[in-house]
Each structure stands twice: as C-alpha cells, then as structure tokens.
C-alpha cells in the first residue's frame, strides 16, 4: 500500500488508519523532508518526492497493489499513471469533489471517493481505507461521503 501526500493532514490520517487496520506494509510519499522522521518511526517507508519524477515514484509503487493518491490528484494524475507503468500496481484510490466524474484510470481499477471537504474527517478516512480493503472491486467505483466543509 502506498499513500501519496502523507505529509498533509488527510494523508497522515489515512496512514495512521491503515496501520491501525493492520496493513502489512505502508509506503508513503511526502514533499517535505521534515515529515519523514514522524512517519518512519511508525514503520512507514517514506520517499521525498513531488511526483514529477516517474522513476522515483515508480520505485515507490513497485510491487504495491494499491495507491491512495492524495497529493494534489488533479495536478499529478498523469505523473502517477506514467510512474505506475510496469510496477504491478492494480488499483488507484483518490479523492474528488461531489459530482466530479472519475479521472481516466488507464489500465487500473479506480475508486473515486467524492467529498466536499478533503480534511481528515473520520468518514472520509474510513472510506479511503475501506476502498483499499475491498479487493474484489474492479473497474471504476464511485463512493460519495456526505461531509460538508
């Protein structure tokens, strides 16, 4: 499991929830080196990346089944798809605004969790973690979380 944007409040909350749920391995990307130590002490493998380097991000994704993509998904979507090529990645989980259509998932299964507030509210965090745990879902799934900003 990989979480992008783990140095932001929602990403940190998702990493913590995955660890509480017993995830065997959690990897994360952060933009700030200052966030590395706090995540590493939890047993998270951390890479500092702004996601524009497909080789670096691809190395982080290598062998992971799922990525929860929270690092500015709209702006970094194409970088993620490029980096994921030939890594074994199967599923992308990401966030979007209410009513938003899913981004083109390329050859990956996609779970789009739509929510008005992208803050670490328990319902949103739980929906993101649950999307990772539903291994049988294929294609594109849209989950609406009814939280307002």
From TrEMBL:
Every NAD(P)-binding domain range: 5-108
TM spans (from-to): none
Superkingdom of origin: Bacteria
Gene3D superfamilies: NAD(P)-binding Rossmann-like Domain
InterPro entries: NAD(P)-bd_dom, NAD(P)-bd_dom_sf
Protein name: NAD(P)-binding domain-containing protein
Species: Carbonactinospora thermoautotrophica
Lineage of source species: Bacteria, Bacillati, Actinomycetota, Actinomycetes, Kitasatosporales
